[in-house]
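S1.2 Input.
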Amino acid sequence: MATQSNQNHLLIIEDEKGRREFPLEEAVYSIGRDPSSDIRLFSQFVSRHHATLVRRQREDGGQYYQIVDGNLKGKPSANGLLINGRKLQAHDLENEDEIVFGPQVSAKYYLLRQNTNPTGPLDEFDITLISPGMIDEFED
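S1.3 Output.
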C-alpha cells in the first residue's frame, strides 16, 4: 500500500537486460541475481542477495530509503556496494545517488518531489518573459 506523500521514490537499474525503472512504494526490497528478488539484477557479477532497500521514517515525518549491502540477516554480498564512488556497507539514499553493484550493473536513485498544494489554477500561458534583473532597465 502506497502512503500519502508528496514524494515519489524511483530506482533506475541498468544491467545486461538494459534500463528498467522501479517506483519504490514498499517497506523493503531485496536486490540481487536470485529470481525471487524484488528487484532482479541480470549479471553474473552480482550476488544472489546483493543488497536490501529499507524504507525509513524521518523525524519530520518524511520518508527515505536506506540501502544495505547483502541481506537483512547480515550476510554481505561478494563485491559490496559502490555508492557515489565510495565502498559502503549502508547508505541513506539521496536524490541522484549512484549505486554500482558490479561491472555494467548500476542503479540511480531519484527522489521526485510533487507540489501537492498548487497556488491557483494551472495556466499553460502563465510564463515570465522578463528576468528580475531586467526590471532596472525599464525604470530608467
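S1.4 Remarks. The first strand starts at residue 7 and ends at 15.
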